[in-house]
Structure formats: structure tokens, C-alpha cells
Amino acid sequence: MAKTEDYGLGEHTFPRGWFMVAEACELDEGPKAVRFFGNDFALYRGKESGQPILLDAYCPHMGTHLTANESSYVIKNGIHIEGDSIRCPYHAWRFGPDGKCNDIPGLDCKAIPQAAQIRAWTAKESMGCIFVWHDPEGGEPDYDVPFLDEWDDPQWVHWKIDHLGSIETHPQEVLDNMADARHLGPTHGAPCQFFNNTIKDHVLIQRQGGYSEEFVAHLSTYTWYTGPGILLSKQSFGEQSAYEIITNTPVDDGVTQVWHGVLARSPNKIATEEDVANARIQQAGALHAFAQDFDVWCNKRPAIQILAAPHEGAFAKSRTWYKQFYNPRAKAHEFQKLANGQYSARGLDQPPDDMISWNKHAAIAAE
Ligand code: FES
Ligand SMILES: [Fe+2]
Predict the structure, then answer these.
(1) For an engineered disulfide with 348, which of 96, 195, 336, 352 has Cβ 3.0 to 4.6 Å away?
(2) Any ligand 1 atom below 6 A from CB of 58
(3) Cα of 87 from ligand 1 centre, angstroms
(4) What global pTM score does this model have?
(5) DSSP string spanning 70-93?
(6) Splitting the chain (367 residues) into consecutive groups of 10 residues, what average pLDDT does each group show?
């Protein structure tokens, strides 16, 4: 298992950016214990605001995990979550969404020790997923979580997230797919006729298309990362149109959790039950294709250095782009300056003009 340092990514072990930490519906079942970025967290939905709240997991009093407990009377008596606050299962100290202790049973609130607080993280719900802003320097987000307008259109069937679990693969290997023009035929049975990448600041775009043996149709995809953890891909094949989401979040150094889903356009203005069933089949098909990458990642040795051939995509540029998230924000622009641009692969055509100009979801101008 290779780690961040092995790839020479930068000063931080875990990257800065928005990352998925749960599917939104998981919070309907109650508070959740999660682990990401080498750290344990307590995740729950505030009863007052309805917003997701993410706190460091361990109570500053005596180190109890705030959400990994089912037997305490704090939970049994239904006082675990009060408004947007959470009570520790051990002595019932209560912490607000800002991480500050706001009640210690039997103690005047003026006497609450200053140190009785834990770190609160910026969490956000979008398109059925819970995302957290992770910044090793503690800074505020400098870009927003992506959102697809189609999510609010009843013609589009929402994804039901596939939870693919953790793999002992550094996310660098997952990101390499973006520049990897020459695996599409051998791995996925869909060799591309055209291919290019655009890199602009925190966004990395891949445009590709060709005949897919898998779908028995021409397939074109416009895929983009908004930061290091969230991939969206607009996919068109035959009459069908869909968006795929793939999210990756570091769990520990060199271990990555992955989720997947498909937002599918139905033929009816308001999707019917049959359309929902077809959308599930479509998602299963996309998952099958993604599993072909997974199969490789789970069994390969790390590609610390890529023995790059001259007809491949811009692996080096894409890795430089990825480094910005592992370095202090003040240095990010240096990596952006080195990586920004348009890159093609020798022997492959340029994408059609309409794909070059289509950029509403990437929210950047084509260059
Ligand atoms: S350990 Fe949390 S209140 Fe005592
Ligand atoms: Fe792939």
C-alpha cells in the first residue's frame, strides 16, 4: 500500500477539498460514527436546522466517542440529539454544532470549562450526499460543492448510491483514470476516437467518445472533477443520457472509500415506476463498467512512477493538478499555473465543438 509521501504529493497527508462522508438517507437512521482523513468523527442531522453536523468524535471530558454507542441511557431516553446539539453517552455533556459544550448536567452553565469543546467541520448536503470541507490548515471553502440542475427535474431519476467500501489504494491511482486515454478500449471495451483534458484551477475535465462494445452504441462522456474528491460525468449513448457520480474520500493514508451512482433521464416528463426500474438497470450497467477499474486498482502495485508512452493522455499534468490539494493553499496557484491548459493524446481526434463549449456544470470557460 503506497502512501501520500511515496507519491511525493506535498506537505499534507490528506488533501484539501469537499469530500463525501455519507449518503444523506443514512442520517435518517440516527447519528453515525465515521472515519476519514485518519480521524474519527461523529456525524448526525440537527433536529432544529435539519442540517448535517460533523464533529470530531471524542468528548474532551474523558474521550468517549459521541456517536459509537447504542446502550447508554442518553440514547435510550432519546436525549442524544437535542435541537442541533449532541449529548455524550457517558456523562451527558452537550455540545453544539459549533463544537462548544453548552450544558453539563448539574453544573451552572457559567462554570463550563473553556476547554470543553471539540472541532466542528463544515458539512453540506447536496444531491443526496453529505459532503465535508476538509482543510488541513483549517481554512474556509474556496469553491462550492457541485450541483446538477437536473437533480430538481422530475424527468431525472435520482441515484441510489452504491457503497463500494474502502480499498487499499491511494486516491492518486483513482485520479489517474482522468488522463488515461488508452485504458478505455482494453479495460472497458470502449476505445475512444477522440480524447482531451482541460485543466483549470481546481477543475479537471476529460472529454472522450467512441464505439462501446459494452453498450453496443456510440458513447461519449464529459467527465469532470470539482476538486480532488467529486467526479461527475455526463454520458450520452444512443437515446440515453445520464450523469454518473463517483466520489473518493481518504480514510487513512493509502486507503480510499468510494461511492457511485447514476442520475438517469427518463423518456417521460415525470419519471414513472418503470423509468425508475430502468434507471436502476442503467446504474448497474455503469457500476459494471466502474468495477472494471476497481478490479485493476484492487490488485495492482502502486504506480509511483508511470512509464508513460507518447500516445497517452497527460498523466504528468493531471498529477501536478492533484498536488495543489496536498500543499498549503498559498502554494496552490503554483501547481495550477503548471497544470492549467488543454491536452490531447497523440493519434486521437479532438472532441466535437459542442463538447468543447459545453461547460455549464464545470462552471469554467473552455480555453
Ligand atoms: S466522557 Fe463525555 S461527558 Fe464524560
Ligand atoms: Fe476507467
Answers:
(1) 195
(2) no
(3) 9
(4) 0.96
(5) SSSHHHHTT-SEETTEEE-TTT--
(6) 97 98 97 98 98 98 98 97 98 98 97 98 98 97 95 98 97 98 94 95 95 84 96 89 97 98 97 97 93 95 95 96 98 98 95 80 46
